[in-house]
Each structure stands twice: as C-alpha cells, then as structure tokens.
C-alpha cells in the first residue's frame, strides 16, 4: 500500500535565513529563504526509500526519472533503496530509465507536455514502474504523463514526488509517495530550476524578485 503521508510546510513558515547555511555566492542575492535544507531532504528520502521497499517485491521495478528536475531525488532515492537491498533480507531488483518532459516557461505552465528522450516506452510493458519526479504543481503534467504511460500497459505505476505544491490551481492529483507538501511559492535548488538556473544549489529555496528578474528568459 502506498502512503500519502508527508511533511507539511505551513503557508506562514519563513524557512531559514541564508546566513545560517552555506549557499553559492552567485545566488546570495537571488533567494528569499531556505525552505528545506539538504540534510532534511536526505533524511526524508531515507524514509521514502523504506516505504517504497516495503511495497515492492522481488519482481523489481523500473525507476523512471523525470529529467532534469528529478535527477537529484532520483539518484538519492535509488542510492537509499540500493543500500536497503544490500543490508536487509528483502531485495528489489532495479532498472532505470530517463525521460524529459517539456512544460514550463518561466514560472507559468504552458499547458502541454512533450516526452523527449529515454528508451522506447514500449519497454515498460508489463513492468512495475516507479515515476520519480521533483514536484507536483497543478498535477496536470503528471496526469498527462500517466496517460501516456498507460498506453504501453505497464503492470503497475506508482509516483514518487519529492515535493507537492499546495495550490488552488491543483487538479487534485496526489502522488503515491511524497516528501514534502509546500506552500504555493516558486522553489529552486536540489535540481529544481528557474530557466535552467539554480540546479547547482543543494538546498530547496524560495526565489526572490531579484532572482526572477536576473534569470528571466
Ligand atoms: N520550482 C521549479 N519548478 C517547478 C515549480 C517550482 O516551484 N513548480 C513547477 N515546476
Ligand atoms: Mg519536474
């Protein structure tokens, strides 16, 4: 059974001041606060790995990374599952694949998605698929991806998203596994970007107006 349980970050939570942690100098003026320090991300992922390991069995799974934003979560999550595989009685064979979806320009959603790259999706037929995504915002992108995947008839499909945004634009989609529920703010870091910037920031931070202006496309 999947768990929808997650860590809820409140709307009036101010995060941590930048001065309290280490961030690259080139982003010092572009961030409002640190919403989720990387250590907390790591600890939460450890638990998600355990939850996922409990659900799957020796049939194994194909972990499908949604690039580019999902790459950090994907590697850290799989590292944890692999650690459990090495150290517990139960072990889950893992295969990996990578896809890219294009759907965002600036911080607005353009309305449609396109799957680019990755192996032939037909390879997922009959497999237990775990989609690994960085963030569920409105949920539209994920619903469209699930629709596309359904057509190749996987045995099961589960979704793990590190973040879920609490927004009134949501269509109500909830992933099977979620790390954190966050307020309706634009966040960057830990591979999440703003126009390709900020992926090289390890904490999840809220971008400020200065940053949006500086890195606008
Ligand atoms: N940050 C980065 N990418 C995103 C976000 C966000 O807040 N929401 C949807 N895609
Ligand atoms: Mg994404």
Radius of gyration: 17 Å
**CATH level-1 class of the domain at 39-182:** Alpha Beta
As residue ranges, the low-confidence spans are none
Q: What is the strand content?
A: 25-35%
Strand order in the largest sheet: 1-8-7-6-3-4-5
Molecules bound to protein = hypoxanthine, magnesium ion
How many helix segments?
4
- How far is it from the N-terminal to the C-terminal residue, by CA? 42 Å
In N-to-C order, the SSE pattern is: EEHEHEEEHEEEEH
Query: What's the overall geometry?
Result: globular
Q: Classify the fold: give the CATH topology of the domain at 39-182.
A: Rossmann fold
Structural class: alpha/beta
Describe the structure in your own words.
With 217 residues, the protein is an alpha/beta fold. It has a domain at 39-182: Rossmann fold, CATH 3.40.50.2020. It has helices at residues 38-55, 71-87, 140-150, 209-214; strands spanning 7-8, 31-36, 61-67, 94-105, 108-116, 128-136, 156-165, 177-182, 187-188, 204-207. The strands form 2 sheets. Strands 1-8-7-6-3-4-5 form a 7-stranded mixed sheet, sandwiched between helices. It has a 3-stranded antiparallel sheet with strand order 2-10-9. Helix 1 (38-55) crosses helix 2. Bound molecules: hypoxanthine and magnesium ion. The site of magnesium ion has 6 residues, from strand 6. Magnesium ion is lined by residues 66, 69-70, 133-135.
